[in-house]
Amino acid sequence: MSYFIWQDSYELGIEIVDTQHKKLVDLISDLLQSSILNHDNQKVEDILQQLVKYTEYHFAEEEKLMIESNFPKFEEHQMIHQSFVEKVNEFYMKFTRKEIALEIQILNYLKNWLINHILITDKEFATFYLNYKSIQ
Fold it and tell me: What is the per-residue pLDDT for 102?
């Protein structure tokens, strides 16, 4: 059973972004499997590191689309991205220094942040971007 399952309501209609969001959903679900269910700290560390790198990659790709389309809320959206990357990095660093365990509260934070970001902030951008593409 998966902790975090992709739902059609998360679809933005921008294939590259939707594919990357699915990967983030999978990584967060893998974290639950490795941490809470299997207690495999090395695997958790590896997945957290992947999550940090993939989140940075995904946000950079998404921000390229924002720049391409002159999205008016680019800077605001970019700051939201930056804040999340810093938070995930913080979890990773604290976990590797054994200052925290990856508990369900952290997993719920990651899951809920991503859901809210997709459904609110990214949907707003997607609407703008798809309109921009339709008049190009």
Answer: 79
Q: Which two tokens stand for residue 79?
A: 């700051």
Predicted TM-score (pTM) of this structure: 0.93
What contacts 128, CB < 8 A, 6 or more positions away? 69, 71, 72
pLDDT (0 to 100) of residue 37 = 79
Both tokens of 69, joined, read 């389309």
User: Residue 128 and residue 113: Cα distance in Å, rounded?
Assistant: 21
Instruction: Write out pLDDT tens, residues 88-129.
Output: 999 999 999 999 887 888 999 999 999 999 999 999 999 999
Q: What is the signed CA dihedral for 56, 48, 13, 60, rounded to 10 degrees?
A: 0
Domain spanning 22-134: CATH 2.40.160.20: no
Measure the CA–CA gap between 27 and 4, rounded to whole angstroms: 9
| H, E, C per residue of 1-45 | CCCCCCCHHHCCCCHHHHHHHHHHHHHHHHHHHHHHHCCCHHHHH
Q: Where are the domains of the chain?
A: 22-134
